[in-house]
Design goal:
about 40% helix, alpha+beta, about 20% strand, 3 helices, about 160 residues, 5 strands
């Protein structure tokens, strides 16, 4: 009988223990402040990702412009410039703007300027000269201006009359 009374006493004494100040948890104000700090940091990370996507798109456009510029340089190098023949592509002056559409839908403008006398300021047209300075400029054809369209790809090369 003695054991039974002790069990009853133990059950009667099992009241919830007192909660101290260090065990109360977070208040509503602390949780709201933590969520606000987390939200601000996530917005900052989102802005960085948006900038990275835009920056990578600009790099992609510049890389495509350089590919188009390289193709144009190969065309200019293959054009005939001999004492008897000069291709129309190498005629002096500013040529009409060509528009190149890439397979992914990008549109680029190519401007050519052929100077028959590169040692005189300005663009000279003189078919008797044996040297030409050719400036090729490739720009992204986009209706809105931005940092991606503001810097064109430019190359300046010289051709000497060959045999």
């Amino acid at each position: 009988m003695k054991t039974t009374s002790q069990n009853i006493d133990c059950k009667a004494n099992s009241s919830p223990r007192a909660v101290t100040d260090s065990e109360q948890g977070f208040t509503l104000v602390e949780v709201a402040a933590a969520m606000l700090i987390l939200l601000i940091s996530l917005l900052g990370v989102t802005a960085v990702f948006a900038y990275a996507v835009s920056f990578n798109a600009g790099n992609s456009n510049r890389a495509r412009a350089l590919v188009i510029l390289q193709q144009e340089v190969e065309n200019l190098r293959s054009a005939k410039f001999t004492p008897s023949t000069t291709d129309v592509l190498l005629a002096g002056g500013t040529h009409a703007t060509k528009v190149v559409i890439t397979p992914d839908g990008g549109s680029f403008n190519i401007n050519l300027t052929v100077d028959d006398d590169p040692f005189t300021p300005g663009v000279q047209i003189n078919t008797a000269k044996s040297i030409k300075e050719i400036t090729a400029t490739v720009t992204l054809n986009r209706p809105t201006a931005g940092w991606q369209t503001s810097v064109p790809s430019i190359i300046v090369l010289r051709r000497v009359r060959g045999n």
